Amino acid sequence: MKIEHVTKKMEQTTIIENVNFSLEKGEIVGLIGRNGSGKTTLFRTIAGHYLLDDGEISIDNQRLDQYPQLKEQLFYIDEKENFLSAYSLKKLNQFYRLAYPNFDQNLYLELMQSHGLPLTLSYRRMSKGMQGLYKMILAIASNATFLLLDEPFDGLDVIVRKKVIGLLLESLSESNRTALIASHNLNELEHIIDRALLIKGKTIEGDYRLETIREQSRKLQLVFRSKQIPPLIKQHSKLIQKQGRVLTALFDNYTEELAAEIQQLDPLVFEELPLTLEDLFEANLRQEALVEG
Questions:
Q1: I want to staple 23 with a disulfide (CB 3.0 to 4.6 A). Which of 1, 52, 96, 188 is the partner?
Q2: Last residue of a domain, one of 211, 226, 250
Q3: Could you give the maximum distance between any two Cα atoms of the chain, in Å?
Q4: How far is residue 130's CA from residue 150's CA, in Å, rounded to a whole number?
Q5: How many CB atoms lie within 10 A of CB 60?
Q6: pLDDT tens column, 223-268
Q7: Using CA atoms, how far apart are residues 269 and 282, in angstroms rounded to an integer?
Q8: Owning domain of residue 229
Q9: How far apart are CA 140 and CA 103, in angstroms?
Q10: 3-state secondary structure string across 17-68
Protein backbone atom coordinates (compact mmCIF):
# COMPACT_ATOMS: atom_id res chain seq x y z
CA MET A 1 0.00 0.00 0.00
CA LYS A 2 1.21 3.50 -0.82
CA ILE A 3 0.02 6.72 0.79
CA GLU A 4 1.24 9.61 -1.35
CA HIS A 5 0.89 13.34 -0.63
CA VAL A 6 -2.30 12.74 1.36
CA THR A 7 -3.97 15.84 2.80
CA LYS A 8 -7.23 16.10 4.72
CA LYS A 9 -9.00 19.24 5.89
CA MET A 10 -11.92 19.48 8.31
CA GLU A 11 -13.98 22.70 8.27
CA GLN A 12 -11.19 24.60 6.50
CA THR A 13 -8.61 23.36 9.02
CA THR A 14 -5.81 21.13 7.75
CA ILE A 15 -5.55 18.05 9.96
CA ILE A 16 -2.97 16.02 8.00
CA GLU A 17 -0.87 17.37 5.15
CA ASN A 18 1.39 15.82 2.52
CA VAL A 19 1.56 12.45 4.27
CA ASN A 20 3.80 9.91 2.52
CA PHE A 21 4.66 6.34 3.48
CA SER A 22 4.26 2.78 2.26
CA LEU A 23 3.22 -0.45 3.94
CA GLU A 24 4.75 -3.72 2.83
CA LYS A 25 2.93 -7.01 3.23
CA GLY A 26 3.98 -9.03 6.23
CA GLU A 27 5.12 -6.21 8.53
CA ILE A 28 3.82 -4.61 11.71
CA VAL A 29 4.13 -0.82 11.79
CA GLY A 30 3.50 1.50 14.71
CA LEU A 31 2.01 4.98 14.27
CA ILE A 32 3.11 7.21 17.13
CA GLY A 33 2.30 10.83 17.86
CA ARG A 34 0.80 13.11 20.46
CA ASN A 35 -2.93 13.44 21.09
CA GLY A 36 -4.53 15.45 18.31
CA SER A 37 -1.67 14.82 15.89
CA GLY A 38 -4.00 13.32 13.26
CA LYS A 39 -3.59 9.56 13.76
CA THR A 40 -7.32 8.79 13.74
CA THR A 41 -7.95 11.17 10.83
CA LEU A 42 -5.25 9.36 8.89
CA PHE A 43 -6.88 5.98 9.61
CA ARG A 44 -10.31 7.24 8.56
CA THR A 45 -8.88 8.70 5.38
CA ILE A 46 -7.07 5.49 4.43
CA ALA A 47 -10.23 3.48 5.17
CA GLY A 48 -12.28 5.75 2.91
CA HIS A 49 -14.45 7.23 5.66
CA TYR A 50 -13.16 10.64 4.61
CA LEU A 51 -12.66 11.86 1.06
CA LEU A 52 -9.15 13.00 0.17
CA ASP A 53 -8.49 16.69 -0.28
CA ASP A 54 -5.23 15.90 -2.04
CA GLY A 55 -2.97 12.92 -2.78
CA GLU A 56 -3.78 9.29 -3.45
CA ILE A 57 -3.88 5.91 -1.74
CA SER A 58 -3.15 2.78 -3.73
CA ILE A 59 -2.81 -0.98 -3.29
CA ASP A 60 -0.65 -2.80 -5.82
CA ASN A 61 -0.53 0.42 -7.89
CA GLN A 62 -4.32 0.64 -8.10
CA ARG A 63 -5.97 3.69 -6.56
CA LEU A 64 -8.64 3.05 -3.95
CA ASP A 65 -10.85 5.86 -5.28
CA GLN A 66 -10.85 4.27 -8.73
CA TYR A 67 -11.18 0.65 -7.55
CA PRO A 68 -13.46 0.72 -4.48
CA GLN A 69 -13.50 -3.09 -4.34
CA LEU A 70 -9.94 -2.84 -3.00
CA LYS A 71 -11.41 -1.70 0.33
CA GLU A 72 -12.11 -5.38 0.99
CA GLN A 73 -8.38 -5.56 1.72
CA LEU A 74 -8.70 -3.00 4.55
CA PHE A 75 -10.00 -3.65 8.06
CA TYR A 76 -10.82 -0.70 10.30
CA ILE A 77 -13.32 -0.10 13.10
CA ASP A 78 -13.98 3.57 13.84
CA GLU A 79 -14.43 3.89 17.59
CA LYS A 80 -16.28 7.22 17.33
CA GLU A 81 -18.80 5.86 14.83
CA ASN A 82 -18.83 2.36 16.29
CA PHE A 83 -22.02 0.64 15.13
CA LEU A 84 -21.17 -2.63 16.88
CA SER A 85 -22.93 -1.83 20.15
CA ALA A 86 -26.40 -2.13 18.66
CA TYR A 87 -26.05 -5.78 17.70
CA SER A 88 -25.43 -9.29 18.93
CA LEU A 89 -22.21 -11.04 18.01
CA LYS A 90 -24.20 -13.35 15.73
CA LYS A 91 -25.56 -10.39 13.77
CA LEU A 92 -22.14 -8.76 13.60
CA ASN A 93 -20.74 -12.00 12.25
CA GLN A 94 -23.28 -11.85 9.42
CA PHE A 95 -22.34 -8.26 8.60
CA TYR A 96 -18.64 -8.99 8.39
CA ARG A 97 -19.12 -12.15 6.32
CA LEU A 98 -20.90 -9.97 3.76
CA ALA A 99 -18.31 -7.18 3.92
CA TYR A 100 -15.29 -9.49 3.54
CA PRO A 101 -15.60 -12.21 0.85
CA ASN A 102 -12.60 -14.05 2.30
CA PHE A 103 -13.92 -14.01 5.86
CA ASP A 104 -12.76 -17.19 7.62
CA GLN A 105 -15.91 -18.41 9.36
CA ASN A 106 -14.32 -21.55 10.74
CA LEU A 107 -11.50 -19.55 12.31
CA TYR A 108 -14.00 -17.03 13.68
CA LEU A 109 -16.06 -19.74 15.38
CA GLU A 110 -12.93 -21.44 16.69
CA LEU A 111 -11.61 -18.23 18.23
CA MET A 112 -15.00 -17.35 19.68
CA GLN A 113 -15.27 -20.74 21.35
CA SER A 114 -11.71 -20.84 22.64
CA HIS A 115 -12.13 -17.42 24.28
CA GLY A 116 -15.58 -18.12 25.72
CA LEU A 117 -17.58 -15.65 23.63
CA PRO A 118 -21.09 -16.97 22.80
CA LEU A 119 -22.68 -15.69 19.58
CA THR A 120 -25.84 -14.75 21.48
CA LEU A 121 -23.93 -12.16 23.51
CA SER A 122 -24.72 -8.49 22.90
CA TYR A 123 -21.68 -6.36 22.11
CA ARG A 124 -22.79 -3.53 24.41
CA ARG A 125 -23.01 -5.89 27.39
CA MET A 126 -19.40 -6.99 27.05
CA SER A 127 -16.62 -5.48 29.15
CA LYS A 128 -14.21 -3.16 27.40
CA GLY A 129 -11.58 -5.87 27.52
CA MET A 130 -13.85 -8.44 25.89
CA GLN A 131 -14.86 -5.88 23.26
CA GLY A 132 -11.19 -5.34 22.45
CA LEU A 133 -10.65 -9.07 22.18
CA TYR A 134 -13.71 -9.46 19.94
CA LYS A 135 -12.57 -6.69 17.59
CA MET A 136 -9.23 -8.45 17.21
CA ILE A 137 -11.05 -11.70 16.39
CA LEU A 138 -13.02 -9.85 13.70
CA ALA A 139 -9.83 -8.33 12.30
CA ILE A 140 -8.09 -11.69 12.10
CA ALA A 141 -11.08 -13.59 10.69
CA SER A 142 -11.73 -10.87 8.07
CA ASN A 143 -8.63 -12.01 6.17
CA ALA A 144 -8.13 -8.39 5.12
CA THR A 145 -4.57 -7.76 3.94
CA PHE A 146 -4.16 -4.48 5.84
CA LEU A 147 -5.35 -4.12 9.44
CA LEU A 148 -5.72 -0.53 10.67
CA LEU A 149 -5.79 -0.83 14.47
CA ASP A 150 -6.45 2.39 16.40
CA GLU A 151 -5.52 1.98 20.08
CA PRO A 152 -6.29 -1.77 20.14
CA PHE A 153 -4.79 -2.17 23.64
CA ASP A 154 -6.53 0.82 25.23
CA GLY A 155 -8.26 -0.05 28.49
CA LEU A 156 -7.38 -3.74 28.39
CA ASP A 157 -6.12 -5.43 31.53
CA VAL A 158 -2.84 -7.27 31.32
CA ILE A 159 -4.38 -10.71 30.76
CA VAL A 160 -6.70 -9.63 27.93
CA ARG A 161 -3.95 -7.48 26.42
CA LYS A 162 -1.66 -10.48 26.19
CA LYS A 163 -4.46 -12.47 24.52
CA VAL A 164 -5.06 -9.70 21.97
CA ILE A 165 -1.37 -9.34 21.16
CA GLY A 166 -0.93 -13.10 20.97
CA LEU A 167 -3.85 -13.42 18.52
CA LEU A 168 -2.43 -10.67 16.33
CA LEU A 169 1.12 -12.00 16.24
CA GLU A 170 0.02 -15.57 15.59
CA SER A 171 -2.22 -14.48 12.74
CA LEU A 172 0.34 -12.25 11.04
CA SER A 173 3.12 -14.81 11.38
CA GLU A 174 1.06 -17.34 9.43
CA SER A 175 0.04 -14.99 6.61
CA ASN A 176 1.33 -12.19 4.42
CA ARG A 177 -0.76 -9.52 6.11
CA THR A 178 0.14 -6.12 7.49
CA ALA A 179 -0.90 -4.22 10.62
CA LEU A 180 -0.67 -0.47 11.15
CA ILE A 181 -1.14 0.16 14.89
CA ALA A 182 -1.66 3.47 16.64
CA SER A 183 -1.09 3.11 20.36
CA HIS A 184 -0.08 5.17 23.37
CA ASN A 185 1.20 1.99 24.99
CA LEU A 186 4.71 2.34 23.63
CA ASN A 187 6.14 -0.38 25.84
CA GLU A 188 3.77 -2.94 24.31
CA LEU A 189 4.23 -1.53 20.81
CA GLU A 190 8.01 -1.72 20.96
CA HIS A 191 8.02 -5.50 21.33
CA ILE A 192 5.81 -6.22 18.32
CA ILE A 193 6.50 -3.66 15.58
CA ASP A 194 9.12 -3.65 12.84
CA ARG A 195 8.86 0.07 12.07
CA ALA A 196 7.62 3.22 13.75
CA LEU A 197 6.05 6.11 11.82
CA LEU A 198 6.28 9.40 13.70
CA ILE A 199 3.44 11.84 13.00
CA LYS A 200 4.22 15.43 13.93
CA GLY A 201 3.27 18.79 12.49
CA LYS A 202 0.40 17.26 10.47
CA THR A 203 2.67 14.90 8.55
CA ILE A 204 4.92 11.86 8.87
CA GLU A 205 8.19 13.31 10.07
CA GLY A 206 10.10 10.08 10.64
CA ASP A 207 10.08 6.47 9.47
CA TYR A 208 12.21 4.37 11.78
CA ARG A 209 13.20 0.72 11.53
CA LEU A 210 13.70 -0.39 15.11
CA GLU A 211 16.51 -2.76 14.18
CA THR A 212 18.38 0.10 12.50
CA ILE A 213 17.77 2.42 15.45
CA ARG A 214 19.25 -0.11 17.84
CA GLU A 215 22.31 -0.41 15.63
CA GLN A 216 22.87 3.29 14.91
CA SER A 217 21.42 5.21 17.86
CA ARG A 218 22.42 5.53 21.49
CA LYS A 219 20.89 7.00 24.61
CA LEU A 220 23.50 8.67 26.79
CA GLN A 221 23.46 10.24 30.22
CA LEU A 222 26.07 12.98 30.45
CA VAL A 223 27.25 15.42 33.09
CA PHE A 224 29.70 18.23 32.30
CA ARG A 225 31.52 20.52 34.70
CA SER A 226 29.88 23.59 33.23
CA LYS A 227 26.13 24.20 33.10
CA GLN A 228 26.61 25.17 29.48
CA ILE A 229 25.90 22.36 27.05
CA PRO A 230 28.77 21.83 24.60
CA PRO A 231 27.89 22.71 20.97
CA LEU A 232 28.91 19.19 19.90
CA ILE A 233 26.16 17.70 22.07
CA LYS A 234 23.55 20.16 20.79
CA GLN A 235 24.53 19.42 17.21
CA HIS A 236 24.36 15.64 17.39
CA SER A 237 21.59 14.84 19.88
CA LYS A 238 17.95 15.31 20.82
CA LEU A 239 16.95 16.01 24.39
CA ILE A 240 15.11 13.38 26.39
CA GLN A 241 15.57 14.89 29.86
CA LYS A 242 17.60 17.61 31.55
CA GLN A 243 17.86 18.00 35.32
CA GLY A 244 20.45 20.52 36.45
CA ARG A 245 23.66 19.43 34.78
CA VAL A 246 22.44 15.88 34.19
CA LEU A 247 21.58 15.50 30.54
CA THR A 248 19.90 12.47 28.94
CA ALA A 249 19.88 12.61 25.16
CA LEU A 250 19.33 10.53 22.04
CA PHE A 251 22.12 10.38 19.47
CA ASP A 252 20.61 9.25 16.14
CA ASN A 253 23.86 8.56 14.31
CA TYR A 254 26.26 7.40 16.97
CA THR A 255 29.73 6.40 15.82
CA GLU A 256 33.02 5.56 17.47
CA GLU A 257 34.36 8.88 16.19
CA LEU A 258 31.54 10.80 17.85
CA ALA A 259 32.07 8.86 21.08
CA ALA A 260 35.74 9.82 21.03
CA GLU A 261 34.86 13.50 20.47
CA ILE A 262 32.48 13.44 23.44
CA GLN A 263 35.15 11.81 25.60
CA GLN A 264 37.52 14.65 24.67
CA LEU A 265 35.07 17.05 26.32
CA ASP A 266 35.98 15.31 29.58
CA PRO A 267 32.46 14.66 30.92
CA LEU A 268 32.08 13.86 34.61
CA VAL A 269 29.51 11.19 33.66
CA PHE A 270 29.39 9.32 30.36
CA GLU A 271 26.90 6.43 30.60
CA GLU A 272 25.03 4.51 27.92
CA LEU A 273 21.44 3.65 28.86
CA PRO A 274 18.94 1.21 27.28
CA LEU A 275 17.14 2.84 24.35
CA THR A 276 13.36 2.41 24.12
CA LEU A 277 10.57 3.46 21.76
CA GLU A 278 9.39 5.82 24.47
CA ASP A 279 12.78 7.56 24.30
CA LEU A 280 12.34 8.01 20.55
CA PHE A 281 8.88 9.48 21.19
CA GLU A 282 10.10 11.90 23.85
CA ALA A 283 13.19 13.01 21.95
CA ASN A 284 11.24 13.84 18.81
CA LEU A 285 7.96 15.12 20.22
CA ARG A 286 8.72 17.02 23.41
CA GLN A 287 8.52 20.79 23.11
CA GLU A 288 11.74 21.57 24.97
CA ALA A 289 14.95 21.98 23.04
CA LEU A 290 18.53 21.69 24.21
CA VAL A 291 18.87 25.05 25.91
CA GLU A 292 21.13 26.51 28.50
CA GLY A 293 19.99 25.88 32.05
A1: 1
A2: 211
A3: 70
A4: 16
A5: 11
A6: 999 988 999 999 999 999 999 999 999 999 999 999 999 999 999 9
A7: 22
A8: 217-285
A9: 9
A10: EEEEEECCCCCEEEEECCCCCCHHHHHHHHHCCCCCCEEEEEECCEECCCCH
Domain boundary among 211, 246, 268: 211
234, 174: one domain? no
| Cβ neighbours for 136, distance < 8 A, ≥ 6 positions apart | 152, 164, 167, 168
Question: Could you give the number of structural domains in the chain?
Answer: 2
Radius of gyration of the chain (CA): 22
Query: Is residue 250 located within the same domain as residue 191?
Result: no
Helix pair angle (89-99, 105-114), 10° resolution: 150
Task: Please give the Cα distance from 262 to 265 (Å, whole number).
Answer: 5
Nearest-angstrom CA–CA distance, 275 and 262: 19
User: pLDDT per residue over 19-41, tens digit each?
Assistant: 999 999 899 999 999 888 999 99
Length, in residues, of the chain: 293
